Amino acid sequence: MSSYQQTTPARLTEPATRKLPRIALLIVGALYIFAGLFFRDPWKTNDLTGIATMMDAYRESAWLLPQIGNFAFAQEGPLTTWMGALSIGLFSPLFGVFTDPLTAQITAARLPTILYFFLLLWGVWHGTYLLARRPECQPLPLPFGGEPHPRDYGRMLADVAFLFILATIGIIIPIHETSSFPLLLALFSIAFYGLARMLDHPVQGSIILGLALAGSLLTHGFIGATPILFMVACALVSRAFTSHDKLTFLITLFLGVGCFLAWFIPAQATNPYWTSSWLHWNYSSFGFSNPQLFLKSLRDLLWFTWPTWPFALIALWNWRKWLRAPHIFIPGTMALGSFLTIALVKDAFEPEYAMLTVPFAVLAAMSIPTLRRNIINTQDWFSIMILSLSMITVWLGWIALHFGWPQQINHNITRLLTGYEPRISPLALLAAIVVSILWYSMVSWRLRINPQALWRGLILSAAGLTCTWILLALLWLPSINYNRSYKQVSQELEQALETHVKPGECVREQGLGMGQRAALRVFENITFTYDTTCKLVLLQTTRQHLKERTLPYADNARILWQGSRKSERHEIFLLLHLDK
To answer: What is the pTM of this model?
Structure first.
């Protein structure tokens, strides 16, 4: 028996580790990722730029270096582009049988997101299971027996970590985007699993960790690789790994750096400007933020990682005498490396916040067997109240949009959806009612049965957030798509270009945002020249500048066309012809 078991803070009986049916986890996970992923246009900015680079790789064979038209998209890395373009090549012909070519390509580009999501869950579940069944993590033996078997205990904590991922509020929208975000999350999960696997199978684990390191470099550059390298550095000085285990980290480094150089060297030879821009993006991303921005990042992190961060802190405190034990050391160093990376990135946002998702979920799972029953019950009631209120809010907003009551809510919504004509889909409405009934049934089951299993609170959080997301997708996806899609304005611009651009003339842009550039490329395959002598200019500006006549070229330009999204109150596009 391990000496850790005599004073471990984990205390629970065998009934508390009752197995959660695998089919329940699979259903919740499938509903979570499929809702809101398809049957909509790509939205700015990351969603559009991701699909734009994938389509250019497929259409223009720009595989080695991501491009948006003739614009060098020298940010992050090429792996997301490769995976999406490959999926377009394989599956868009199949989808093209049922829909138009553009929709088929967009749908095919989103398929890898499903793979990334289940890789995320797979890595978290199996990595947590490997750590939780180790002797250091086992609960205190009971005087008369009845403590859970290590295998059952490990499965229970793995289920809880799985549910904590699904319950994390901040990832639910970006994980449904066709961007680097879902892939980066999956790679961090695989890196966590690889390091946990090294405790039992050093070579196998080091290969998995090396592939995750290479993938992170090719997905989010040096920013994505920094937490993994920090985790490896901490492992090299840890007693949790033997000298033989530490030697296998050479495999990790050689594999990670080798895969990266296998892309970077040909890229450098093909287009030195692209690679120098990519290196500049990496170097310029690092730097100390001013205190105000750092405090803002901390505030956003509290929201993004809810509800895992309070439980992660509880785990670090309750297991403070076991900080060197693998089940705390591995996710703890991963969390510390991720937090330091966020502190060192100037404009840290969702891709950087995502780095904390996996370690916080694992640490949060480790806290559950150390909590008192009243705290777990409080978590249950909090989940019921907050998520039920969220679903009521979704329904109330939908009623206000379609029936005009309450009037104030209707007014606030219609201001954001100028020109939108709401229509009720009977099928979507019926499905939304079914989802609401399912949530009511789950809450009723929880209150009536009062199960002893420690996952009872987390299943409510994960399922409740999933139900809320499904409700949003069923009831609000058409209106959100209307508010955020650039499809119509792209079509209008294409028609204006056909009317006003004469043979031999070129068009350049000024002030065009990255998301808008990608939208024009995705929907109408529009690109721009860098020739400053072009007489035609697409200008992105604001209505206020247009009203105050403070536009560039105000003295020598004629407006040939102007347009914007109907719901947009500020942004406007102008096609100008310069007379001089």
So the answer is: 0.93
